[in-house]
Amino acid sequence: MLSSTKWDSLPDHIIVNILSYLSLVDKWNAGQTCKTWLACFRSPYLWNRFCFRFHSSQDSRYLRCVETYGHLFRYMSIDLDQGEVLNRENACQVISQLSNKPERRLQTLALKFCGENPLFYAGQEFVQALVELFSPPPEHVTLFNHLKDVDLSGLPVAFDDHVVDLLSENHPSLENLNIVNKSLVCKVTPDCVLRLTQRCQNLKDFRLFYGCVSDAVLESLAEEDRKPLEHFQLMCRRDEKYNKELSPENWRKLAKKSPKLKVTLAFDNTCPLYKVALIMQPEIPVYVLRLETFTRIFEEVNLASDFYSGTLQKMVIQTRPSPELNRSLIRLATCCLKLSSLHVFCLLEKETIEKILDLHPDMRAKESYTLKHQQENHPWIAGKDC
Fold it and tell me: pTM of this prediction?
């Protein structure tokens, strides 16, 4: 029985597995119990993945983990409260220290800000830290792995061509990139994105702003000698009033090259409403559509029924109530048989909700919907998968 078994006689792989479920503090405390558990605490497996959380001054102690175990990091995320200067300094120090470790194995990087954004804060120290990490390593650094997965969506700073060019030049094995953040400005140009697609032939999941894409980028992603793209997210904002819509022919080429491609098409409240219908094209294999315009829309919902009946699986709408909207949603539920998630943030008729859920009972079972006919206090409680 387990009660009669000495804990220090457990197989190492079981101890390591136990430690993998603990927080860093609990790992450390468990590692102090005996030499066997301390040796397991130092196992490279435990340090492949590491999440830094900088939310108070006490979290500065985690910087020692970079010094001791940074050469083992393969998957790293940094979560910080951006409102405190010390938290921002600690996060930048982690990136800088990791950039200069004699051995670097990092493959995955994710950054996420939370808390209040300081007034007039531009985040340039983070841009500089990323420049250091993405640049060619110093002579004393041995690079065992290139970056494959970079998620900068949680970092609300304005990226430019220099940062993205360094990433694509020095990490051609890149597979997943997300630069869709909450910054009001994105300085990454279509020419820069084109260079990235030409250098990084293994891209699988690509998320960026619509204004960063050109027909040349679509043509590059459709080339025969590259791996098929699996997911493509495009966020449309105010800048689209100055941009030309992407060619239907090039969308057809990309869909042919990547038959399993899933496109997420999103519109926020700053995107001119007249551009929504122009950007939505039947050649795009849209499986997630987010119409978060806060304007009165229903014709765009009808377009989704016409264009994406064979692909659409999820839809999110922020709009105003109207009889036309109710009718268009019933039509959407009738036409889009693969629809499994629907979230509408305005009041609907009760009969409309019942009709939609009758057409898609799996949505009701999984609670993957937000459909309400009575006013609730803000914010609304959204359904799962919103």
Answer: 0.92
